[in-house]
Specification:
The chain has ten helices and six strands; from the N terminus they run H-H-H-E-E-H-H-E-H-E-H-H-E-E-H-H. The protein has one domain: Uracil-DNA Glycosylase, subunit E. The structure holds iron/sulfur cluster (SF4).
């Protein structure tokens, strides 16, 4: 079994274990109405309904037909927004090259159903040797259009959050737990996360940051492998495979709850992240 398949199987096992912990005993394709109890008809969302993106939910775009996809299909592996490895030195060049390999492996991915409605894969961007990786939930409409993570209103606020602790956006790395936009900005489903998570994990290992910042409940739950209450867990250091992980609020949550307390909380969390990253230098 290839490393990629092994990672996918491991991610699926973790997802199923998390579902069992939540009392879900069946996950699978949507069944015809009436053929199963309502609770088992749709795969469970990866998280409870804590909205994390501010955009009004637009109508889900129609899935592209197989014929349309085939007629328009062409290998689409867009250039990464990363420096050319040839212009980087040593470690940074190696990490950039590894990220490019991971992106090439992802290809024009059809591993989960989100491929049917996305416009572009949003792989991630930033410094391949970044001290910190910010992990969000999934691309929204602006990101789907541009192919870049966090470019809408929430993205602007994230850039300000990053600047508030003295980094520029290009000093860090930003990505999501799923690389394709869930239609209507719904939460990504467990099986979608499970298929995409190996690529996120490879990105994190390639960058080898001093800290990972998970933005909101879905990203935190995904990397910790269990459902979490972000309001309780934020600000407390966690661990993902030996990496320090700081859960904090998603910037979209801050846009909806622009209170002094919420801003102070994120500021405190990011100051702790900055201190940890500086200590590793
Ligand atoms: S979300 Fe991830 S696994 Fe699903 S199609 Fe997009 S890139 Fe592939």
């Amino acid at each position: 079994m290839s490393d990629e398949r092994r990672e996918i199987v491991a991610a699926l096992r973790r997802a199923v274990a998390a579902l069992r912990d939540e009392g879900v005993d069946w996950v699978g394709p949507r069944l015809p109405a009436g053929s199963a109890p309502a609770a088992t008809q749709a795969p469970a969302a990866v998280v409870a309904a804590e909205p994390t993106r501010p955009e009004a939910a637009p109508a889900a775009p129609a899935a592209r037909s197989t014929a349309a996809r085939e007629s328009s299909w062409q290998p689409r592996v867009p250039a990464l927004d990363l420096p050319d490895p040839a212009t980087l030195e040593g470690d940074a060049a190696a990490r950039a090259a590894r990220l490019a390999e991971i992106r090439a492996d992802l290809g024009d991915c059809t591993r989960c159903g989100l491929c049917e409605t996305r416009d572009q894969i949003v792989f991630g961007e930033g410094d391949p040797a970044a001290p910190v990786v910010f992990v969000g939930e999934g691309p929204g409409a602006d990101e789907d259009r541009s192919g870049r993570p966090f470019v809408g209103r929430a993205g602007e606020l994230l850039s300000k959050m990053i600047a508030a602790v003295g980094w520029r956006r290009e000093d860090v790395y930003i990505c999501n737990i799923v690389k394709c936009r869930p239609p209507g900005n719904r939460d990504p489903r467990l099986e979608e996360v499970a298929m995409c998570q190996p690529f996120l994990e490879q990105q994190l290992r390639a960058i080898d940051p001093a800290a990972i910042v998970t933005l909101g409940k879905p990203a935190t739950s995904t990397l910790l492998g269990r459902p979490v209450a972000i309001t309780k867990l934020r600000g407390q250091w966690q661990e993902w495979n030996g990496y320090a992980l700081m859960p904090t609020f998603h910037p979209a949550y801050l846009l909806r709850n622009y209170t002094r307390e919420a801003r102070q909380a994120v500021w405190d969390d990011l100051k702790a992240v900055r201190a940890r990253a500086d200590a590793r230098r």
